[in-house]
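Researcher: Let's run the pair from yesterday's discussion. Sequence first, then tokens, for each.
Model: Starting with the first of the pair.
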Amino acid sequence: MPGLKDNIEEYIDLQKERLILNVADKSSDIVSAVGVRIAYMTCALFAIVFLSISLAIGINYMANSQFLGFLIVAVLYAVISVLLFKNGEKWFGQYIASEMLDIFYKDEDNEKF
């Protein structure tokens, strides 16, 4: 039966195209999500830098010192860095995995085969 064989080949080709389009869609979702997160992180970094400088200058003013505020802020960042180094994967690993799975499996229930 040439008709059945042709239909099966066409079905397989359509499934390959669907898979390629699905991978392209998920890849673009991941790239856009990463881009947005990078923009958020950049803005947050600038805010933290300027707030840190303001905090250090404020501590300098209250302590009547030229360097004590910057030293205190540096020690604060050192403590935060140690905490992130020791617990960062536990704190952020689950969040990152969850976000990636949400992106990968979004709208999958609505797809029809």
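Model: Moving on to the second of the pair.
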Amino acid sequence: MNARISTLRTALPLALCALALAACSTTDDTADAASAAAQATGSAMAEGGTRIAVTLTFEGETCTYDGPSEAAAGTVELTFVNNTEGYGTAELFGLDEGYSHEDAVAALAERTDGGWPSWMREIGAYDLTPAGETNVWTKDLDPGAYAAFCVDTSPKEAFAAGGLTLTE
């Protein structure tokens, strides 16, 4: 038997058991059980179970950010909805200390070479997302400031969405 299939057959029942125990728990152990279940299934969950949901919806020349502006550091689940007529992508940047989402928007407006300033670090980007499709990206993020953008691929143009500050 393939080792990967064997591992999946073992991990799945364990994850289901952990979820069942979490659902039945009436103590503070619920968060611990949910975190163990997430780790058993391979999904990213920050310590303490913090999950931040962010949605970027790209429509025409508008990129709408739906999510908190500030939260405790943890796992960010970024959903990108491409409602344009062509391919698009979402990009999430970490900003060096002292920079804000507003600074990133200003830099976007001023750029002429198509590049990003050195104080914006690409944290993640989707592969090209066809028109009408949705992608979900999950990553554990440290405290700091972040900026999210939608990018039209033809012609390549970025549209500011929103900013997120993660705290300790």
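Researcher: Give me one sentence on the second I can quote.
Model: The first helix runs from residue 3 to 24.
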